[in-house]
Specification:
The protein is α/β, with parallel strands linked by helices. About 45% of the residues lie in helices and about 15% in strands. The protein has seven helices and seven strands; from the N terminus they run E-H-E-H-E-H-E-H-E-H-E-H-H-E. It has a seven-stranded parallel beta sheet with strand order 3-2-1-4-5-6-7, with helices on both faces. The two termini are about 20 Å apart.
Length: about 230
């Protein structure tokens, strides 16, 4: 498979970090962001050129625009993995603090929109590319005490479907449910029960080939990792 320019949000931990490690090992060029400056510095030192990692708060539209200027000066992404997200602390919807709800919406929904807005026009000019918007099992079903997170992932499903209808031939928007993985986010919900699920690194063995196999024929798909 030829080298691709791949953009990933939320690369400092969990699924984003596991994807980054696997894709670099396969020879692809990574453009990644995370909010943590120390984590970004560590990734830059670990992987070096031609990969590029930058501290970006994707809830800030201007920050994403500035990041896009840097990335696009070095190449247009062939694959975007809109992965970054946060989850609310277990709580009834009426007890979720307003600030926590707003922050979750700003990252999970607005952040994905900001990335689409800043990068998809360049992909259209390029004439090809795949945007994978990370959904969730809780973007297609619900559970108690994670209402804000469920709402955000249902929103991603809807955003993706509309985007897919708007893209020209040669491009694709795919809503992707990664499944249930033992990450910090799952641990915040399930506690010790999260140990029954695969680690992010184990998950990446299956997920990376699947994601790399997506193409324009998958436009509009709502998929789940095999």
């Amino acid at each position: 498979m030829p080298n691709r320019n791949i953009l990933i949000t939320g690369v400092s931990r969990g699924l984003g970090l596991a994807l980054t490690e696997s894709l670099v090992d396969l020879g692809h060029t990574l453009f990644g962001c995370a909010r943590s400056e120390p984590a970004v510095r560590a990734l830059s030192e670990r992987f070096g050129s031609p990969h590029h990692f930058q501290a970006v708060d994707i809830s800030d539209d201007r920050a994403v625009e500035d990041w896009a200027d840097t990335v696009l000066a070095n190449g247009t992404p062939d694959l975007i993995l809109n992965n970054a997200a946060v989850i609310n602390a277990n709580n009834s919807v009426w007890d979720v603090p307003v600030e926590e709800f707003s922050n979750l919406i700003d990252i999970n929904i607005k952040g994905s929109f900001h990335v689409i807005r800043s990068f998809v026009p360049a992909m259209i000019r390029q004439g090809n590319g795949v945007v994978v918007n990370f959904s969730s099992t809780w973007g297609r079903s619900t559970s108690p005490e994670v209402g804000p997170y469920c709402a955000s992932k249902y929103a991603i499903e809807g955003l993706n479907s509309s985007l897919a209808q708007e893209l020209p031939s040669g491009l694709a928007a795919v809503a992707f449910n990664p499944g249930v993985i033992n990450t910090d986010m799952l641990q915040s919900c399930f506690g010790e029960g999260s140990s029954h699920y695969p680690s992010a690194q184990q998950w990446a063995v299956r997920a990376v080939p699947f994601l790399l196999g997506l193409s324009s024929v998958n436009n509009g798909d709502s998929t789940t990792v095999p």
